[in-house]
């Protein structure tokens, strides 16, 4: 019961301490034709109240399971497509080197398509190693990324 009262107190305090912000934006054109915006209503002339839409940006993140896979320093995640020759080259390289990897087809897999979009993918493959991302594939560059990730 005491814990319940404590949380009620926290919620009420938060509501009371949170400031309420409200403002109006006005738009008007002066005699020379110049457009002005202000939060104070000007003295004369034709004034239009403007409705401001708040610009919010949600964070971009890949799905939680892929993120956790990539954080496992030894795990490699590749977003690919069946027709992609460079993807085949990367896949063959991983297999020859004994590197375990997860692969998501961006055209056949819903998860692959969603993650690819969240990664702002413009081409395949996209390869994640730890917190690093590679677009395309270069064995030399991959070796450097992989060596850094497993340190």
Ranges with pLDDT <50 over ≥5 residues? Answer: none
| Helical stretch tally | 5
Number of strands: 7
Biggest sheet: strands, sense, closure?
Answer: 4 strands, mixed
CATH topology-level fold name of the largest domain: Glutaredoxin
The total domain count is 2
How far from one another are the termini? 50 Å
**Which overall shape is indicated by the principal axes computed on the Cα atoms?**
elongated
Helix content: 25-40%
How would you state the average pLDDT, rounded?
79
The CATH superfamily of the largest domain is known as: Glutaredoxin
- CATH class bucket of the largest domain: Alpha Beta
CATH architecture of the largest domain: 3-Layer(aba) Sandwich
Class by helix and strand content? alpha+beta
Strand content: 15-25%
Give the helices and strands as they follow along the chain: HEEEHEHEHEEH
Describe the strand arrangement of the main beta sheet, using strand numbers: 5-4-6-7
Protein model, in words:
- With 151 residues, the chain is an alpha+beta fold.
- It folds into 2 domains: 19-53, no CATH class; 64-149, Glutaredoxin, CATH 3.40.30.
- It has helices at 2-17, 64-71, 85-97, 110-118, 139-149; strands at residues 25-29, 35-38, 47-50, 76-80, 101-105, 126-129, 132-135.
- The strands form 2 sheets. Strands 5-4-6-7 form a 4-stranded mixed β-sheet, with helices on both faces.
- The two termini are 50 Å apart.
């Amino acid at each position: 019961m005491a814990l319940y009262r404590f949380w009620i107190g926290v919620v009420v305090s938060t509501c009371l301490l949170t400031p309420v912000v409200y403002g109006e934006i006005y738009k008007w054109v002066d005699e020379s034709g110049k457009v002005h915006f202000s939060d104070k209503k000007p003295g004369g002339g034709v004034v239009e109240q403007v409705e401001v839409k708040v610009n919010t940006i949600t964070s971009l993140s890949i799905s939680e399971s892929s993120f956790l896979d990539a954080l496992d320093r030894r795990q490699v995640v590749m977003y690919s497509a069946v027709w992609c020759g460079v993807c085949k080259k990367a896949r063959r390289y991983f297999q020859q080197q004994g590197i375990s990897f997860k692969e998501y087809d961006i055209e056949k897999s819903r998860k692959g398509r969603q993650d690819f979009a969240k990664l702002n993918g413009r081409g395949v493959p996209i390869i994640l190693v730890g917190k690093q991302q590679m677009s395309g594939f270069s064995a030399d560059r991959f070796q450097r990324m992989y060596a850094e990730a497993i340190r």
